[in-house]
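Appendix C reproduces, verbatim, an entry submitted by the partner laboratory led by Prof. M.T., so that reviewers can inspect both the input and the predicted structure.
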Amino acid sequence: MRKLMCLFLLTLAGAGSWQMFNSCKSVPKPYRELTGLDSLIQQKMQEGRLIGIGAAIIVNKKVIWMKGYGYADRNAGIPFTPLTMINAGSIAKTFTGVCMMKAVEENLISLDEDINSYLPFKVQNPNCPEEKITLRQIATHSSSLLDRYPFYTDSLYFTGKDSPDSLGNFLKAYFVPGGKHYTKENFSVSKPGTYWDYSNIAAALAGYIIELQTGMKLNEYSRRHIQKPLKMKNTGWFFNEFDLARHARLYNTASDTVKEIPLYGCTTYPDGGVRTSVNDLSRFFICLLNGGSYQNCRILKESSVAEMTRLQFSNTHKPENIDLTQKNEGLFWRTKNSGKLIGHGGSDPGIKTEMLADPDKNAAIILFTNTDLTERYQLKAYFDILNQLMEQARKMKATSK
Protein backbone atom coordinates (compact mmCIF):
# COMPACT_ATOMS: atom_id res chain seq x y z
CA MET A 1 0.00 0.00 0.00
CA ARG A 2 2.82 2.42 0.88
CA LYS A 3 4.38 1.74 -2.51
CA LEU A 4 1.11 2.55 -4.24
CA MET A 5 0.67 5.78 -2.28
CA CYS A 6 4.20 6.80 -3.19
CA LEU A 7 3.43 5.99 -6.81
CA PHE A 8 0.46 8.35 -6.76
CA LEU A 9 2.43 11.10 -5.11
CA LEU A 10 5.05 10.75 -7.82
CA THR A 11 2.34 10.62 -10.46
CA LEU A 12 0.84 13.88 -9.25
CA ALA A 13 4.21 15.53 -8.80
CA GLY A 14 5.40 14.33 -12.18
CA ALA A 15 2.46 15.84 -13.99
CA GLY A 16 4.16 19.18 -13.81
CA SER A 17 2.60 20.11 -17.11
CA TRP A 18 -0.78 20.57 -15.48
CA GLN A 19 -2.09 23.51 -17.39
CA MET A 20 -4.70 26.17 -17.30
CA PHE A 21 -6.15 25.69 -20.77
CA ASN A 22 -6.88 29.36 -21.21
CA SER A 23 -4.04 31.82 -21.02
CA CYS A 24 -4.14 34.43 -18.29
CA LYS A 25 -5.09 37.05 -20.86
CA SER A 26 -8.21 35.14 -21.92
CA VAL A 27 -9.47 34.30 -18.43
CA PRO A 28 -11.40 36.97 -16.45
CA LYS A 29 -9.00 38.35 -13.87
CA PRO A 30 -10.87 37.17 -10.73
CA TYR A 31 -10.82 33.59 -12.01
CA ARG A 32 -7.19 33.09 -12.94
CA GLU A 33 -6.58 31.12 -9.77
CA LEU A 34 -9.11 29.16 -7.73
CA THR A 35 -7.82 29.13 -4.18
CA GLY A 36 -7.43 25.64 -2.82
CA LEU A 37 -8.86 23.82 -5.84
CA ASP A 38 -5.55 22.41 -7.10
CA SER A 39 -4.59 21.03 -3.71
CA LEU A 40 -8.04 19.54 -3.14
CA ILE A 41 -8.06 17.78 -6.52
CA GLN A 42 -4.56 16.44 -5.96
CA GLN A 43 -5.52 15.18 -2.51
CA LYS A 44 -8.69 13.50 -3.79
CA MET A 45 -6.82 11.94 -6.70
CA GLN A 46 -4.42 10.41 -4.20
CA GLU A 47 -7.26 9.18 -1.98
CA GLY A 48 -9.16 7.68 -4.91
CA ARG A 49 -6.09 6.45 -6.81
CA LEU A 50 -7.20 8.42 -9.85
CA ILE A 51 -4.62 8.43 -12.65
CA GLY A 52 -5.94 11.36 -14.68
CA ILE A 53 -8.53 14.11 -14.32
CA GLY A 54 -9.87 16.69 -16.76
CA ALA A 55 -12.32 19.36 -15.65
CA ALA A 56 -14.05 22.57 -16.68
CA ILE A 57 -16.16 25.18 -14.94
CA ILE A 58 -18.77 26.99 -17.03
CA VAL A 59 -20.48 30.15 -15.76
CA ASN A 60 -23.13 32.08 -17.66
CA LYS A 61 -22.57 29.88 -20.73
CA LYS A 62 -18.82 30.57 -20.85
CA VAL A 63 -15.82 28.47 -19.85
CA ILE A 64 -14.00 30.36 -17.13
CA TRP A 65 -11.67 27.59 -15.94
CA MET A 66 -10.39 24.40 -17.54
CA LYS A 67 -7.54 22.18 -16.45
CA GLY A 68 -5.99 18.71 -16.52
CA TYR A 69 -4.25 16.74 -13.74
CA GLY A 70 -2.26 13.55 -13.61
CA TYR A 71 -1.71 11.35 -16.64
CA ALA A 72 -3.45 10.39 -19.85
CA ASP A 73 -0.73 7.77 -20.30
CA ARG A 74 1.08 7.00 -17.07
CA ASN A 75 3.78 4.79 -18.57
CA ALA A 76 4.71 7.31 -21.27
CA GLY A 77 4.42 10.28 -18.90
CA ILE A 78 1.80 12.02 -21.07
CA PRO A 79 -0.27 14.47 -18.98
CA PHE A 80 -4.04 14.54 -18.96
CA THR A 81 -5.11 17.88 -20.46
CA PRO A 82 -8.40 19.44 -21.60
CA LEU A 83 -7.54 18.21 -25.11
CA THR A 84 -7.17 14.57 -24.05
CA MET A 85 -9.76 12.30 -25.67
CA ILE A 86 -11.63 9.72 -23.62
CA ASN A 87 -14.69 7.58 -24.20
CA ALA A 88 -17.51 9.53 -22.58
CA GLY A 89 -19.84 6.65 -21.71
CA SER A 90 -23.53 7.50 -21.61
CA ILE A 91 -22.90 11.18 -22.30
CA ALA A 92 -23.02 9.82 -25.87
CA LYS A 93 -26.80 9.56 -25.42
CA THR A 94 -27.00 13.36 -25.47
CA PHE A 95 -25.29 13.33 -28.89
CA THR A 96 -27.83 10.74 -30.03
CA GLY A 97 -30.51 13.01 -28.56
CA VAL A 98 -29.33 16.03 -30.56
CA CYS A 99 -29.21 13.89 -33.71
CA MET A 100 -32.74 12.71 -32.95
CA MET A 101 -34.01 16.27 -32.57
CA LYS A 102 -32.26 17.31 -35.79
CA ALA A 103 -34.01 14.47 -37.61
CA VAL A 104 -37.30 15.70 -36.10
CA GLU A 105 -36.54 19.18 -37.43
CA GLU A 106 -35.96 17.67 -40.86
CA ASN A 107 -39.36 15.91 -40.64
CA LEU A 108 -37.68 12.52 -40.93
CA ILE A 109 -39.02 11.14 -37.65
CA SER A 110 -41.63 11.93 -35.01
CA LEU A 111 -41.14 11.51 -31.29
CA ASP A 112 -44.60 10.01 -30.84
CA GLU A 113 -44.93 7.73 -33.88
CA ASP A 114 -44.82 3.95 -33.48
CA ILE A 115 -41.16 3.05 -34.01
CA ASN A 116 -42.25 0.21 -36.29
CA SER A 117 -43.05 2.87 -38.89
CA TYR A 118 -39.30 3.27 -39.29
CA LEU A 119 -37.89 -0.23 -38.84
CA PRO A 120 -37.34 -3.07 -41.35
CA PHE A 121 -38.29 -5.56 -38.61
CA LYS A 122 -40.99 -5.39 -35.95
CA VAL A 123 -40.28 -4.55 -32.32
CA GLN A 124 -43.08 -5.28 -29.89
CA ASN A 125 -43.23 -6.18 -26.25
CA PRO A 126 -44.58 -9.78 -26.13
CA ASN A 127 -46.21 -8.99 -22.78
CA CYS A 128 -48.36 -6.27 -24.37
CA PRO A 129 -48.09 -6.71 -28.16
CA GLU A 130 -50.82 -4.20 -29.02
CA GLU A 131 -49.03 -1.30 -27.34
CA LYS A 132 -46.89 0.97 -29.50
CA ILE A 133 -43.39 2.04 -28.53
CA THR A 134 -42.23 5.59 -29.35
CA LEU A 135 -38.95 7.47 -29.50
CA ARG A 136 -40.18 9.71 -26.68
CA GLN A 137 -40.56 6.64 -24.47
CA ILE A 138 -37.14 5.39 -25.52
CA ALA A 139 -35.51 8.76 -24.77
CA THR A 140 -37.12 8.87 -21.29
CA HIS A 141 -36.24 5.24 -20.48
CA SER A 142 -39.87 4.17 -20.29
CA SER A 143 -40.09 2.10 -23.51
CA SER A 144 -40.30 -1.34 -21.80
CA LEU A 145 -37.18 -2.43 -23.76
CA LEU A 146 -34.62 -3.78 -21.30
CA ASP A 147 -30.89 -4.38 -21.07
CA ARG A 148 -30.35 -8.04 -20.23
CA TYR A 149 -27.42 -8.55 -17.88
CA PRO A 150 -24.83 -10.00 -17.81
CA PHE A 151 -25.28 -10.58 -21.54
CA TYR A 152 -25.26 -6.86 -22.29
CA THR A 153 -21.86 -6.19 -20.75
CA ASP A 154 -20.27 -9.54 -21.54
CA SER A 155 -21.11 -9.71 -25.25
CA LEU A 156 -21.02 -6.19 -26.66
CA TYR A 157 -17.52 -4.90 -25.87
CA PHE A 158 -14.57 -5.63 -28.18
CA THR A 159 -11.00 -5.13 -27.02
CA GLY A 160 -8.80 -2.95 -29.22
CA LYS A 161 -11.29 -2.50 -32.04
CA ASP A 162 -14.74 -1.38 -33.02
CA SER A 163 -17.46 -4.00 -32.95
CA PRO A 164 -17.44 -6.28 -36.00
CA ASP A 165 -21.19 -6.77 -35.59
CA SER A 166 -23.72 -4.67 -37.48
CA LEU A 167 -25.91 -2.57 -35.18
CA GLY A 168 -29.02 -3.41 -37.19
CA ASN A 169 -28.32 -7.12 -37.26
CA PHE A 170 -27.68 -7.20 -33.54
CA LEU A 171 -30.89 -5.31 -32.73
CA LYS A 172 -32.91 -7.62 -34.95
CA ALA A 173 -31.38 -10.66 -33.23
CA TYR A 174 -32.23 -9.13 -29.83
CA PHE A 175 -35.79 -7.94 -30.42
CA VAL A 176 -37.31 -10.27 -33.03
CA PRO A 177 -38.66 -13.72 -32.06
CA GLY A 178 -36.33 -16.43 -33.31
CA GLY A 179 -33.31 -14.12 -33.16
CA LYS A 180 -30.05 -15.37 -31.69
CA HIS A 181 -30.33 -13.08 -28.65
CA TYR A 182 -34.12 -12.96 -28.33
CA THR A 183 -35.83 -13.77 -25.04
CA LYS A 184 -38.83 -12.39 -23.21
CA GLU A 185 -36.35 -11.16 -20.61
CA ASN A 186 -35.50 -8.39 -23.09
CA PHE A 187 -38.86 -6.79 -22.31
CA SER A 188 -40.59 -5.42 -19.22
CA VAL A 189 -43.84 -6.92 -17.97
CA SER A 190 -45.16 -3.34 -17.82
CA LYS A 191 -46.68 -1.47 -20.74
CA PRO A 192 -44.55 1.08 -22.61
CA GLY A 193 -44.71 4.44 -20.89
CA THR A 194 -45.79 3.06 -17.51
CA TYR A 195 -42.51 2.02 -15.89
CA TRP A 196 -39.05 3.61 -15.78
CA ASP A 197 -36.07 1.35 -16.42
CA TYR A 198 -32.77 2.79 -17.70
CA SER A 199 -32.14 1.19 -21.08
CA ASN A 200 -28.95 1.31 -23.12
CA ILE A 201 -30.33 -1.06 -25.74
CA ALA A 202 -33.30 1.24 -26.37
CA ALA A 203 -30.93 4.16 -26.95
CA ALA A 204 -29.07 2.00 -29.47
CA LEU A 205 -32.39 1.36 -31.23
CA ALA A 206 -33.04 5.12 -31.38
CA GLY A 207 -29.63 5.60 -33.00
CA TYR A 208 -30.41 2.90 -35.55
CA ILE A 209 -33.73 4.56 -36.42
CA ILE A 210 -31.88 7.85 -36.97
CA GLU A 211 -29.51 6.05 -39.33
CA LEU A 212 -32.35 4.49 -41.29
CA GLN A 213 -34.33 7.71 -41.63
CA THR A 214 -31.41 10.01 -42.42
CA GLY A 215 -29.59 7.58 -44.70
CA MET A 216 -26.36 8.24 -42.77
CA LYS A 217 -24.42 6.41 -40.11
CA LEU A 218 -24.94 8.06 -36.74
CA ASN A 219 -21.29 9.10 -36.48
CA GLU A 220 -21.52 10.80 -39.89
CA TYR A 221 -24.77 12.55 -39.06
CA SER A 222 -23.28 13.64 -35.73
CA ARG A 223 -20.14 14.92 -37.44
CA ARG A 224 -22.20 16.96 -39.90
CA HIS A 225 -24.58 18.50 -37.36
CA ILE A 226 -22.53 18.61 -34.14
CA GLN A 227 -18.75 18.18 -34.36
CA LYS A 228 -18.09 20.10 -37.57
CA PRO A 229 -20.17 23.22 -36.84
CA LEU A 230 -18.93 23.36 -33.23
CA LYS A 231 -15.31 22.74 -34.33
CA MET A 232 -14.96 19.74 -32.04
CA LYS A 233 -11.64 18.49 -33.38
CA ASN A 234 -11.03 15.88 -30.68
CA THR A 235 -14.36 14.05 -30.92
CA GLY A 236 -15.31 10.87 -32.77
CA TRP A 237 -17.19 7.60 -32.45
CA PHE A 238 -14.97 4.93 -34.00
CA PHE A 239 -11.26 4.11 -33.89
CA ASN A 240 -10.70 5.17 -37.50
CA GLU A 241 -11.94 8.69 -36.73
CA PHE A 242 -9.11 9.81 -34.46
CA ASP A 243 -5.42 9.46 -33.68
CA LEU A 244 -4.98 6.94 -30.86
CA ALA A 245 -2.09 9.05 -29.54
CA ARG A 246 -4.64 11.66 -28.46
CA HIS A 247 -6.72 9.10 -26.54
CA ALA A 248 -6.18 8.52 -22.82
CA ARG A 249 -5.17 5.10 -21.59
CA LEU A 250 -7.63 3.58 -19.13
CA TYR A 251 -6.78 2.20 -15.70
CA ASN A 252 -7.98 0.10 -12.80
CA THR A 253 -6.25 0.97 -9.51
CA ALA A 254 -8.52 -0.78 -7.01
CA SER A 255 -5.79 -3.22 -5.93
CA ASP A 256 -2.16 -2.68 -4.96
CA THR A 257 -1.21 -2.62 -8.64
CA VAL A 258 -2.09 -0.22 -11.43
CA LYS A 259 -3.64 -2.18 -14.28
CA GLU A 260 -4.18 -0.77 -17.75
CA ILE A 261 -7.55 -1.54 -19.35
CA PRO A 262 -7.28 -1.99 -23.13
CA LEU A 263 -9.33 0.39 -25.23
CA TYR A 264 -12.52 -1.11 -26.62
CA GLY A 265 -15.43 -0.61 -28.98
CA CYS A 266 -19.10 -1.44 -28.47
CA THR A 267 -21.79 -2.85 -30.75
CA THR A 268 -24.45 -0.51 -29.36
CA TYR A 269 -22.44 2.67 -29.98
CA PRO A 270 -25.42 5.11 -29.92
CA ASP A 271 -25.73 4.49 -26.19
CA GLY A 272 -22.09 5.15 -25.26
CA GLY A 273 -19.70 5.31 -28.21
CA VAL A 274 -18.63 8.96 -28.32
CA ARG A 275 -15.00 9.79 -27.53
CA THR A 276 -14.32 13.42 -26.76
CA SER A 277 -12.26 15.87 -24.71
CA VAL A 278 -13.21 18.24 -21.92
CA ASN A 279 -12.53 21.15 -24.26
CA ASP A 280 -14.76 19.79 -27.03
CA LEU A 281 -17.52 18.71 -24.70
CA SER A 282 -17.64 22.17 -23.13
CA ARG A 283 -18.65 23.57 -26.54
CA PHE A 284 -21.38 20.98 -26.91
CA PHE A 285 -22.65 21.47 -23.35
CA ILE A 286 -22.72 25.26 -23.63
CA CYS A 287 -24.62 24.87 -26.88
CA LEU A 288 -27.35 22.86 -25.14
CA LEU A 289 -27.43 25.18 -22.14
CA ASN A 290 -27.73 28.12 -24.55
CA GLY A 291 -30.71 26.85 -26.52
CA GLY A 292 -28.76 25.26 -29.38
CA SER A 293 -26.30 28.06 -30.11
CA TYR A 294 -22.58 28.38 -29.42
CA GLN A 295 -20.58 31.46 -30.48
CA ASN A 296 -23.08 32.40 -33.21
CA CYS A 297 -23.24 28.81 -34.47
CA ARG A 298 -26.69 27.21 -34.19
CA ILE A 299 -27.01 23.41 -34.42
CA LEU A 300 -30.65 23.08 -33.33
CA LYS A 301 -33.67 25.33 -33.15
CA GLU A 302 -34.24 26.79 -29.72
CA SER A 303 -37.60 24.99 -29.58
CA SER A 304 -35.90 21.65 -30.26
CA VAL A 305 -33.44 22.10 -27.40
CA ALA A 306 -36.27 23.27 -25.15
CA GLU A 307 -38.13 20.03 -25.86
CA MET A 308 -35.04 17.87 -25.42
CA THR A 309 -34.17 19.45 -22.06
CA ARG A 310 -37.77 19.79 -20.84
CA LEU A 311 -38.46 17.42 -17.96
CA GLN A 312 -41.05 15.09 -19.46
CA PHE A 313 -42.66 13.60 -16.37
CA SER A 314 -45.21 15.37 -14.18
CA ASN A 315 -47.52 14.39 -11.35
CA THR A 316 -50.26 13.69 -13.89
CA HIS A 317 -48.03 11.89 -16.41
CA LYS A 318 -45.21 9.71 -15.14
CA PRO A 319 -44.14 6.09 -14.82
CA GLU A 320 -45.46 4.47 -11.66
CA ASN A 321 -42.02 3.99 -10.13
CA ILE A 322 -40.76 7.57 -10.59
CA ASP A 323 -40.44 9.83 -7.55
CA LEU A 324 -40.25 13.31 -9.04
CA THR A 325 -38.49 14.66 -5.96
CA GLN A 326 -35.59 12.33 -6.81
CA LYS A 327 -35.56 11.88 -10.58
CA ASN A 328 -36.94 13.18 -13.86
CA GLU A 329 -36.08 12.70 -17.52
CA GLY A 330 -35.73 14.92 -20.53
CA LEU A 331 -35.04 13.37 -23.93
CA PHE A 332 -31.66 11.68 -23.39
CA TRP A 333 -31.24 14.33 -20.68
CA ARG A 334 -31.92 13.96 -16.99
CA THR A 335 -31.87 15.30 -13.47
CA LYS A 336 -29.15 14.21 -11.08
CA ASN A 337 -28.49 14.66 -7.36
CA SER A 338 -32.19 14.48 -6.37
CA GLY A 339 -33.20 16.96 -9.04
CA LYS A 340 -30.62 19.57 -8.06
CA LEU A 341 -28.58 19.17 -11.26
CA ILE A 342 -29.35 18.55 -14.94
CA GLY A 343 -27.34 17.03 -17.78
CA HIS A 344 -25.90 13.54 -18.15
CA GLY A 345 -23.07 11.32 -16.97
CA GLY A 346 -21.34 8.20 -18.15
CA SER A 347 -19.65 5.11 -16.76
CA ASP A 348 -17.81 2.36 -18.59
CA PRO A 349 -14.73 0.24 -17.86
CA GLY A 350 -11.89 2.62 -17.04
CA ILE A 351 -13.86 5.87 -17.19
CA LYS A 352 -16.25 8.11 -15.29
CA THR A 353 -17.64 11.29 -16.82
CA GLU A 354 -20.13 13.95 -15.78
CA MET A 355 -21.60 16.94 -17.63
CA LEU A 356 -23.86 18.75 -15.16
CA ALA A 357 -25.47 22.13 -14.55
CA ASP A 358 -27.73 23.89 -12.12
CA PRO A 359 -31.35 24.01 -13.33
CA ASP A 360 -30.95 27.70 -14.25
CA LYS A 361 -28.12 26.60 -16.62
CA ASN A 362 -25.75 29.36 -15.46
CA ALA A 363 -23.39 27.25 -13.35
CA ALA A 364 -22.04 24.05 -14.87
CA ILE A 365 -19.12 21.65 -14.75
CA ILE A 366 -17.52 18.84 -16.73
CA LEU A 367 -15.41 16.17 -15.01
CA PHE A 368 -13.54 13.25 -16.62
CA THR A 369 -11.34 10.54 -15.17
CA ASN A 370 -9.60 7.67 -16.94
CA THR A 371 -9.77 5.44 -13.87
CA ASP A 372 -12.26 2.65 -13.15
CA LEU A 373 -14.29 3.63 -10.09
CA THR A 374 -15.02 0.17 -8.76
CA GLU A 375 -14.65 0.95 -5.06
CA ARG A 376 -16.73 3.19 -2.82
CA TYR A 377 -13.76 5.28 -1.73
CA GLN A 378 -12.94 5.95 -5.39
CA LEU A 379 -16.47 7.14 -6.11
CA LYS A 380 -16.32 9.34 -3.02
CA ALA A 381 -13.08 10.96 -4.17
CA TYR A 382 -14.49 11.59 -7.63
CA PHE A 383 -17.71 13.13 -6.33
CA ASP A 384 -15.86 15.18 -3.75
CA ILE A 385 -14.04 16.78 -6.68
CA LEU A 386 -17.31 17.21 -8.59
CA ASN A 387 -19.04 18.86 -5.63
CA GLN A 388 -16.12 21.25 -5.14
CA LEU A 389 -16.22 22.20 -8.82
CA MET A 390 -19.96 22.91 -8.57
CA GLU A 391 -19.39 24.99 -5.43
CA GLN A 392 -16.76 27.04 -7.27
CA ALA A 393 -19.07 27.47 -10.28
CA ARG A 394 -21.88 28.76 -8.06
CA LYS A 395 -19.56 31.17 -6.27
CA MET A 396 -18.35 32.52 -9.60
CA LYS A 397 -21.92 32.86 -10.84
CA ALA A 398 -22.84 34.80 -7.70
CA THR A 399 -19.89 37.19 -8.02
CA SER A 400 -20.49 37.75 -11.75
CA LYS A 401 -23.85 39.42 -11.19
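The domain at 87-401 is CATH 3.40.710.10 (Beta-lactamase). Additional entries are available on request from the coordinating office.
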